[in-house]
Amino acid sequence: MSKILLSFTLLFLSLCSFGQKRSTDRKLEQQIKQLIHGFQGEVGVYVHDLKKHKEVNIGADSIFPTASVVKIPILVGVFDKIEKGQLQLDQELVYRESQKYGGSGLMQFFKDSSKVDLKTLIALMLSYSDNVTSIWNQKLAGGGIAINTLMADLQLRHTRVNSQTEGRKTDWEKYGWGQTTPKEMADLLTLIRQGKVISEKSSDRMYRFLGNMFYDERGLSQIPSTVKAASKTGSLDDVRNEVMLVNAPKGDYVFSIFTKNNQDQSWGKTNAAEVLTRKLSKLLWDYYNK
Predict the structure, then answer these.
(1) Would you say the pTM of this structure is higher than 0.90?
(2) Which residues form the signal peptide (predicted)?
């Protein structure tokens, strides 16, 4: 672990929940419980008002599959290597057709021997949730074990990469590529926003990457385009997830909604979990800004 990461980790521990004890916002909690009532699947919601230090935790300490939200821990792993001078954002890399992988993203359509830089790999991984570049970035970060060590250093006990990670076959069979809790993923995004992951400089750059999402039909669609927000979604047939930190005019807030075992496994804007995510985002925007 780098000296910089160690110093920020110790700071994190000493501050106790980012400097303030969090209390439950009972009014908002009731509104969210009403909103998610009747959802046909398992849902976990975490909300944290970063200005007033009030939170809502509804099943947010339960473990969920990350789906593509795992790309945030991978991002941290890559920047740890950049901080150590082992990688550079502008370094040239070469794509090989043997790396082709299905699912979301654009890199699978690149020609063999195409030249690309690390900055582009990161941008594609996050903005377009590109699977080829995500697997590539995971390897560049030192693999799942290295990334999981960073998560443990940040006191994120349940946030782990499972795929292609020694000793995690059982977890991979249960949760897929990665696993986390809604609260831990919201906390990780908050730590990045506060400059407490790897270094202030690295956190700032990571936050910039996380603020450029192509897939904006869910929670992001309920935030005015003039307002900065950092986010990441993840999807499987029976899973829909989103974590988002909003730099709202009246104060930052972060929320995450994770679902699993969903009855509605359709793909499209009318998917029940995606509709629920938009409703939650709208509820929070109105609650904090009106």
Answers:
(1) yes
(2) 1-19
